[in-house]
């Protein structure tokens, strides 16, 4: 028996030899189809314009929804990406569901496609994305944002249903909704369910040792101190990515730690105009923009649009990035609260110069490691896998921050982009150099794990 696998269905052919009337040798091949897409269009036959519209609105929704700080936003993206991918995976050649690949997902049963029936994967994607998006923002979703999601879903559904058989439309939409329901059930058990209702996870206390974080502004509680205990999508993204500790804390001017703080101090004092611009460009404060993860997703969406990527590649691309960004924040936050290191501004004011001020605001959580560096490190590895041969070389201009009043910035390599983002935290005066270098290390390892440990379909770059 020989099996031929293509686009989620398997055709099994059995050859039998029959003798007819004792003289005639006949070869009869009987074939049976075990799945559903033999007559359905493949996912790569649909464009991804509607999916890009959703991701544009995810950014706007995160920016305008109470309780969505960087960890909460990355988590929302995470499950939206899974649902979108699972809704179309049976229409992608060489694709494998994530159900038996992600940590804990195998405990949940995704809906089965109906053997012999046609599906419209774009309709399924539209339904799954709209429903899971509303679930992830749920109780704090504003009326305006809910109406917008509904309007995107309705308009997309009408357009995709034109000239499509009514039974296929209904079947595909229901399939997408069922996928979203299962992914949402999976999300409820990760430790972060409805975390936007209590993003500071109080009560929580930090030791008062000299090296420990203290508030640096009006917000006196540290953000999401228990986030590092959330379930990651890949266990290895926590178990195998945690960095070694920072250099020993010291206030001795000859110590390595003091010298590290002096790098921050001297950098801020001597920043060029461009370095100040870079610090502000990558700041991505929650509720001012759609957070660091949102910025990275905006870059991905822009490139997918420029590349005219199909629904198949776009769904995979968003799934990869969603998994990486979610796990980057869990891993980073674990380290932050394992070390609870004070911010440079605190150290410098106490031991170097009481008049020191940062270029941008210092967020309310410990320093080591940098969240921006972790997420962009992970994101850069995903972008490299999607659009290059592994070199990271890809010339592009990031237009995503124009909406916030910045000039566009151009890059020739995804690693170059990541290094600039990480350095922006030094230019801003809010991270030690080691926060950024170790953060990039953690993020890159997470991105590599997502690329290499999971089975993904292959697309020509």
The dominant shape is: elongated
What is the CATH top level name of the largest domain? Mainly Alpha
- What portion of residues belong to β-strands? 5-15%
SSE series? EEEHHHHHHHHHHHHEEHH
SS elements, strand count: 5
Assign the CATH architecture of the largest domain.
Orthogonal Bundle
Strand order of the largest sheet: 1-2-3
Estimate the helix proportion, in percent: 40-55%
Our count of domains comes out at: 3
Count helical runs: 14
Overall structural class, as computed from helix and strand content, comes to mainly alpha
Low-confidence stretches: 1-36
Largest sheet: 3 strands, antiparallel
Radius of gyration: 25 Å
CATH fold naming of the largest domain: Vanadium-containing Chloroperoxidase, domain 2
Beginning-to-end CA distance, first to last residue: 35 Å
Mean of pLDDT: 92
Brief descriptors of the model:
461 residues; mainly alpha; Vanadium-containing Chloroperoxidase, domain 1; Vanadium-containing Chloroperoxidase, domain 2; 3 domains; 3-stranded antiparallel β-sheet; two-stranded antiparallel ribbon; 5 strands; disordered N terminus
What does this structure look like?
The protein is mainly α and 461 residues long. It folds into 3 domains: 2-33; 43-187, Phosphatidic acid phosphatase type 2/haloperoxidase (Vanadium-containing Chloroperoxidase, domain 1, Up-down Bundle), CATH 1.20.144.10; 201-453, Orthogonal Bundle (Vanadium-containing Chloroperoxidase, domain 2), CATH 1.10.606.20. Helices cover 49% and strands 8% of the residues. The chain is built from 14 helices and 5 strands. It has helices at residues 49-63, 70-88, 121-137, 143-161, 166-187, 236-239, 256-269, 273-281, 291-307, 311-339, 344-351, 371-387, 414-427, 433-453; strands spanning 2-6, 9-20, 24-33, 393-398, 409-413. Strands 1-2-3 form a 3-stranded antiparallel sheet, with no helix packed on it. A hairpin with a 3-residue loop joins β2 (9-20) and β3. α2 (70-88) runs antiparallel to α5, α2 runs antiparallel to α10 and α13 (414-427) runs antiparallel to α14 (433-453). The longest helix has 29 residues, at 311-339. It is elongated. Residues 1-36 have low confidence and may be disordered.
């Amino acid at each position: 028996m020989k099996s031929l696998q293509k686009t989620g269905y398997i055709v099994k052919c059995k050859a039998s030899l029959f003798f007819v009337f004792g003289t005639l040798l006949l070869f009869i091949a009987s074939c049976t189809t075990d799945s559903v897409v033999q007559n359905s269009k493949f996912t790569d036959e649909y464009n991804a314009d509607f999916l890009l519209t959703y991701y544009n609105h995810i950014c706007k929704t995160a920016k305008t929804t109470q309780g969505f700080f960087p960890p909460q936003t990355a988590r929302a993206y995470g499950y939206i990406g899974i649902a979108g991918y699972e809704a179309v995976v049976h229409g992608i050649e060489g694709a494998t569901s994530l159900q038996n690949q992600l940590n804990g997902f195998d405990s949940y049963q995704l809906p089965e496609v109906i053997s012999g029936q046609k599906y419209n994967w774009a309709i399924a994607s539209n339904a799954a994305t709209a429903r899971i998006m509303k679930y992830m923002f749920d109780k704090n979703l504003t009326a305006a944002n809910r109406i917008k999601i509904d309007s995107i879903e309705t308009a997309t559904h009408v357009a995709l249903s034109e000239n499509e058989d009514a039974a296929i439309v209904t079947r595909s939409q229901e399939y997408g909704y069922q996928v979203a329901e299962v992914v949402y059930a999976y999300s409820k058990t990760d430790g972060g369910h409805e975390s936007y209702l209590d993003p500071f996870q109080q009560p929580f206390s930090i030791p008062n040792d000299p090296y420990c974080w203290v508030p640096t502004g009006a917000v006196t509680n540290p953000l999401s101190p228990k986030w590092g205990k959330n379930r990651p999508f890949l266990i290895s993204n926590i178990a195998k990515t945690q960095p070694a500790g920072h250099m020993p804390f010291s206030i001795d001017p000859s110590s390595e730690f003091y010298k590290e703080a002096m790098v921050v101090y001297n950098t801020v004092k001597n920043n060029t105009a461009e370095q100040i611009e870079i610090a502000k460009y990558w700041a991505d404060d929650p509720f001012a923009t759609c957070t660091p993860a949102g910025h990275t997703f905006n870059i991905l969406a822009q490139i997918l649009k420029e590349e005219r990527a199909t629904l198949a590649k776009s769904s995979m691309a968003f799934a990869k990035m969603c998994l990486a960004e979610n796990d980057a924040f869990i891993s980073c936050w674990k380290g932050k609260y394992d070390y609870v290191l004070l911010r440079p501004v605190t150290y410098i004011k106490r031991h170097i110069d009481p008049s020191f001020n940062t270029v941008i605001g210092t967020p309310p959580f410990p320093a080591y490691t940098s969240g921006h560096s972790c997420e962009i490190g992970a994101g850069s590895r995903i972008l490299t896998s999607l659009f290059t041969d592994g070199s990271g070389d890809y010339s592009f201009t990031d237009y995503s921050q124009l909406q916030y009043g910045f000039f566009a910035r151009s890059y020739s390599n995804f690693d170059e982009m990541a290094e600039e983002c990480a350095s922006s935290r030094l230019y801003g005066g809010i991270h030690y150099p080691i926060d950024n270098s170790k953060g990039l290390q953690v993020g890159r390892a997470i991105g590599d794990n997502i690329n290499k440990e999971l089975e993904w379909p292959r697309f020509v770059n």
